[in-house]
Here is the input.
Amino acid sequence: MDVEFDDLVLTARGHDLLRFRLAMLGDEMRSTLSAVLREGVFDGEAASRYQQASTEHAALLLALLESRPVGSVPADPRTVLVGDRVRVVTDDGAVESLVVVHPLELSLDDAFGRAKPALRRVSTASPLGRAMLGRNVSDVIEVRDPTGPYRCRILSADRERPTTTAASWMPYTARDPG
Here is the structure.
C-alpha cells in the first residue's frame, strides 16, 4: 500500500482528539438547538454559533472518514513517514525526539490536548517536518526555518505503536483524550 505525503494519516492520539472534538461540536449544536426550542428565539447569534459548529463538524467528520490509522501504513525503518518517532541531532550536538504528525492532528493537539504528549510533535507542514518526511535515517537535512536555516542528522525513525483497533476507528466513540 503506497502512501502519499498528503494522505490523512493519524496517530492513535490524533484519532482520539478528532473524535473528541466531533463529540464536543455535536454537544454544542444540540445545546444551541435545545436553547432555541426552549426560548423560541433563533436570533443571529444562535444561527451563527450553530452554523459555525455544524460547518466545522462536517469538515472534521469528512476528515475522520478519509483518515487512515498509522498502523495501516507499512513501516519502513529507513525512511521518515507520518506517525514515526524520530530522533535527530543538530550541528551543536543537541539530540531531540519527536513524532511526525499531519497538520490537522497537531492543530487538534494544540487546541484540545490537555495532557501533553511525552514527545514533541512536529507537523509535516512545518519546516522541520517537510525536511524530514521521506528522508532516510542517517541523512543530514537542511531545515529552512523562518528564524534561520539549520542542519540536523536523522538518527532513527521508529513507528509509533498504534493503540487504536480497527473497530474503534469510527466516529462518535469519543473519550476525553486528556
Remarks:
- Residues 127 and 145 are 6 Å apart (CA to CA).
